[in-house]
# Entry
Amino acid sequence: MSAESDERSGESAAHRGDGHEKDEEAPLGSRAPEFIKARRTLHLSWQVGVFIVGLAVVGAGIVMLPLPGPGWLVIFAGMAIWATEFVWAQLVLRWTKRKVTEAAQRALDPRVRRRNIILTSIGLVIIAVLLGVYLWKFGFVMPWKIDQ
# Structure
């Protein structure tokens, strides 16, 4: 079944559920105001400004990765700033959104949730057994009261 026949029959890829659905995505390209896009020099300086602001935000996010702060959130905010002007950033954000959506759907799958609950329970039992063995062998002694 071709895409053309799908459109004629009124059946879209989203309704078929074959995984090839395209969201109503905004067209790629600059989202600068028309009066800025109409003047080449102004548009170029606009793009340089957007790039510098996005670079500062992404840089701050990278600094926040090892330091306290919402590093990844700030990095994605910088990418969103870049995506207002640059096609490559728009494509990266679309790819990231698609992967996050797929991961969320996989995480909500009942079989995956059941497996994760079982694995977590087994891990907690193992930790409890190891802790019990340690306490049985050494007792409950604070590190600052250990006799040498």
In short: The mean pLDDT is 80. The two ends are 79 Å apart (CA to CA). The chain is about 70% helix and 0% strand.
